[in-house]
Specification:
single chain; mainly alpha
Protein backbone atom coordinates (compact mmCIF):
# COMPACT_ATOMS: atom_id res chain seq x y z
CA UNK A 1 0.00 0.00 0.00
CA UNK A 2 1.23 3.45 -0.91
CA UNK A 3 1.09 5.95 1.97
CA UNK A 4 1.90 9.63 2.45
CA UNK A 5 5.34 8.54 3.68
CA UNK A 6 6.16 6.53 0.54
CA UNK A 7 8.98 7.99 -1.54
CA UNK A 8 7.94 9.17 -4.98
CA UNK A 9 10.76 7.27 -6.65
CA UNK A 10 9.55 4.04 -5.07
CA UNK A 11 6.10 4.54 -6.58
CA UNK A 12 7.49 5.45 -10.00
CA UNK A 13 9.74 2.37 -10.02
CA UNK A 14 6.95 0.06 -8.85
CA UNK A 15 4.13 1.22 -11.10
CA UNK A 16 4.63 2.17 -14.73
CA UNK A 17 1.34 4.13 -14.79
CA UNK A 18 2.19 6.19 -11.70
CA UNK A 19 3.94 8.72 -13.92
CA UNK A 20 0.66 9.39 -15.67
CA UNK A 21 -1.12 9.99 -12.38
CA UNK A 22 1.58 12.37 -11.14
CA UNK A 23 1.43 14.24 -14.47
CA UNK A 24 -2.37 14.42 -14.31
CA UNK A 25 -2.02 16.23 -10.98
CA UNK A 26 0.55 18.65 -12.40
CA UNK A 27 3.52 17.02 -10.75
CA UNK A 28 6.65 16.74 -12.89
CA UNK A 29 8.04 14.03 -10.64
CA UNK A 30 9.69 12.03 -13.35
CA UNK A 31 12.57 14.43 -13.92
CA UNK A 32 12.62 16.11 -10.54
CA UNK A 33 15.68 15.51 -8.38
CA UNK A 34 13.40 15.63 -5.34
CA UNK A 35 11.66 12.46 -6.50
CA UNK A 36 14.54 10.40 -5.12
CA UNK A 37 14.02 11.63 -1.56
CA UNK A 38 10.62 13.32 -1.32
CA UNK A 39 7.54 11.59 0.02
CA UNK A 40 4.08 11.75 -1.48
CA UNK A 41 3.03 13.96 1.43
CA UNK A 42 5.81 16.52 0.96
CA UNK A 43 5.38 16.70 -2.77
CA UNK A 44 1.61 17.10 -2.52
CA UNK A 45 2.10 20.00 -0.10
CA UNK A 46 4.66 21.68 -2.38
CA UNK A 47 2.31 21.41 -5.37
CA UNK A 48 -0.86 22.26 -3.37
CA UNK A 49 -2.44 18.93 -4.31
CA UNK A 50 -4.97 16.92 -2.32
CA UNK A 51 -2.77 14.11 -0.97
CA UNK A 52 -5.75 11.87 -0.21
CA UNK A 53 -7.04 12.06 -3.78
CA UNK A 54 -3.55 11.37 -5.14
CA UNK A 55 -3.07 8.41 -2.79
CA UNK A 56 -6.45 6.99 -3.76
CA UNK A 57 -5.47 6.97 -7.43
CA UNK A 58 -2.00 5.58 -6.75
CA UNK A 59 -3.33 2.80 -4.55
CA UNK A 60 -5.74 1.78 -7.30
CA UNK A 61 -2.56 0.88 -9.23
CA UNK A 62 -1.73 -1.63 -6.48
CA UNK A 63 -5.03 -3.38 -7.11
CA UNK A 64 -4.26 -3.76 -10.81
CA UNK A 65 -0.69 -4.95 -10.33
Amino acid sequence: MITEKTAIIQVIRSHRLARDIFAKHGMGCIGCMGATTETIENCAKMHDIDAEALLKELNELDIGK
